[in-house]
Amino acid sequence: MPKPVNTSVSRREEPPAASTGPVDKALAVLDALVQPDAPHRLADLAARTGLPKPTVHRLLHTFAEAGYAVPGPGGNYQAGPRLLGLAATALAASSELRLARPVLDDLRLRTGHLAHFSVRDGAVAVHVTQSEPSSTYRMPLTAGGEVPLYCSAVGWAMLSALPSPAAAELLGGEPLPARTSRTVRDPGAVLAALPTVRERGYAVDDEYAEQDVRAIAAPVLGPGDRVAGAVGIVGLTFTLDEESVAVLGPMVRAAAGTVSAALRGGTGPLGIVRGQE
Amino acid sequence: MPKPVNTSVSRREEPPAASTGPVDKALAVLDALVQPDAPHRLADLAARTGLPKPTVHRLLHTFAEAGYAVPGPGGNYQAGPRLLGLAATALAASSELRLARPVLDDLRLRTGHLAHFSVRDGAVAVHVTQSEPSSTYRMPLTAGGEVPLYCSAVGWAMLSALPSPAAAELLGGEPLPARTSRTVRDPGAVLAALPTVRERGYAVDDEYAEQDVRAIAAPVLGPGDRVAGAVGIVGLTFTLDEESVAVLGPMVRAAAGTVSAALRGGTGPLGIVRGQE
DNA sequence: ATCATCGTTCCGGCTCCCGGAACGGACGAA
DNA sequence: TTCGTCCGTTCCGGGAGCCGGAACGATGAT
């Protein structure tokens, strides 16, 4: 008796975003491959990317031949040495990142909170590096993670340093999804808050994205006042309480200013003499 | 049992890249895009990858649409936010890397030399992360950089932890190119030195790769004695002198042992092949 | 003003990418 | 042990879309 193929209506919305070109598919697989829950099985990668199984398999084979993925026993894959090398090179080559790191360490030491540096990708912020206190028993922030601009301190900070029309366009006209009961859902309200952020020099996220989590951030500006990213600290509300915001805010603002100044001043695109290769 | 004995040896590619598929070309462009001398002009990327100009342009356009590259004024490109996020995610997801970092910091503090962690990609070692002393006036090692196994301390360390046949295959039969006057060019001589490395627990590179540079390294072993990488220190010969090798060597060996133990013990992503004998 | 160089666009040819279907092995349940 | 299920892998014919030489406009140096 032929079993009916399980074609039940998926309860989960299909996120697949059918990429048109092979390069987009390759990027999708790479993105899935570096996710923290390694090693990855072929079926999982196919499900996550929404690509057909043979397609993912072929891409993984290509990656493996180039050293960007390494196949394990039982047909599971993980990030390969060349991918790790690429990642290390990319992070080392980013001048803002290289300059931000020591500032983040200093900021973490002086505030006791997790300090991080994020950059903007469209309407979301990507956390690129961070300095964690040893006492973090639960990490409210993951490296490489993303958070919408409208509900994060780093997001508001970067929005505040953008021209108003650009900020308005990024926020859109529709009501924004609520993450907590305190999320500011009205784009107009977010826009109205930006002048205050500009005046103070730092933005505060009061449980906008997650319950019991507060954050403070300030924008980092590169040459020509271009927004390069944002520096911020994150903590639970009962350690990063309302009173401390008044003293921590200026510290965050100063840290961001330090990075901005370093970006403008010292090391231009080619300030250093590199060895060969 | 078909064991994956895939030990691809050659991975060196020259400007006339023989990339057959579009995915390989995309990887080549990505690799060129993260190189330290940003921003990159289209013609440079085309020259570096050996690909035709329109092809590179099309790939960059695809990358830009996905946020993996960002076009600057005047038609130059640099790594985009998604690429930085991917890099951060990849490095954060690697358990060996996460475990190695604090050990490297400690090793650097106690030895005063640059400490680094490298993994193997075919017949070369890739430097994945490092902890630099502040006094480094010239960096003899770059993040994401590569060095052949046969002429580096980390290379010898990883070779020593491999089965002899595998090590022999990686070294090949031909005489190896000389990097300095002290480079060991005979594959047989390298193989003959490995038992000593195994016995002492660390390898020493006496100006094999570069003049006036000495290095010490020890292998890091994961579950099942699989080679996960190597921990090493690098310094100039007149600060990292011959007498200090005897005291620094065991420290490097101990550091590598710490990482190995942590890899085996604590935070295995999920113990899959625990029963495999 | 003139030219070399670069980034960008165009377009016809035909490569080789695509993914449904099938196969064999691994694992768990009965 | 046997059966059923699921997974990784391979195959293959059709046609989607990749390819790159050639051309065009912008830019900066001479």
From TrEMBL, chains A, B:
This is IclR family transcriptional regulator. Coiled coil: none annotated. Residues 20-81 form the HTH iclR-type domain. SUPFAM superfamilies: GAF domain-like, Winged helix' DNA-binding domain. Residues 1-22 are annotated as: Disordered. Keywords: DNA-binding, Transcription, Transcription regulation. PROSITE patterns: HTH_ICLR, ICLR_ED. Residues 82-265 form the IclR-ED domain. It holds the Pfam family IclR_C.
